[in-house]
Amino acid sequence: MYIVLAIIVLIALYAVFIYNGLVRARQVAEEAWSGIDVQLKRRADLIPNLIETVKGYAAHERQTLEEVVALRNKAQAMPSGDVAARGQVEGLLSQALGRVIALAEAYPDLKANTNFIELQRSLEGIEEEIQMSRRYYNGAARELNVKVESFPNNLLAGQFGFSKREFFEITNEADRAVPTVKF
After folding, report:
1. Per the CB 3.0–4.6 Å rule, which of 62, 111, 164, 170 could disulfide with 104?
2. Total domains, the chain
3. In terms of residue numbers, what domain contains 116?
4. Listed GO cellular component terms (predicted)?
């Protein structure tokens, strides 16, 4: 009788251990996504200043500037939980921002403007932070996915509503390409 009771207690303790590990992995993934969200918000807040600075020098590049603003607004309006769709829009935004930065090559006065230089440096720093946050999130998502799919964790994961996380990545190969600017 005591042996059976001891086995039941050990199984229950093991289930609690597995459950707590799943909760910990989910919280790390949520924290990592929050880090990406913060960096994307910083970038979105910087874009209007960048656009206004470039507008003065490159008024005839209105289409490029409007595209950046439209993509920024679309990215900010997206629900935070849709990782794949958010990654696609953010990839398009990164590509459009690359075209705006490339405009500086055609406008020497803009290239020398201290506001533009400072905004460009800030944007480059934020882009690096986004990359680091994305790597951290993808690692946390990977760890959670492994726990959710591994035996015996998968027996409890399904019962308690734990599910796999999508990776935050650029899915369109064209988004990975270096932007080209032609005048």
Report:
1. 111
2. 1
3. 2-176
4. membrane
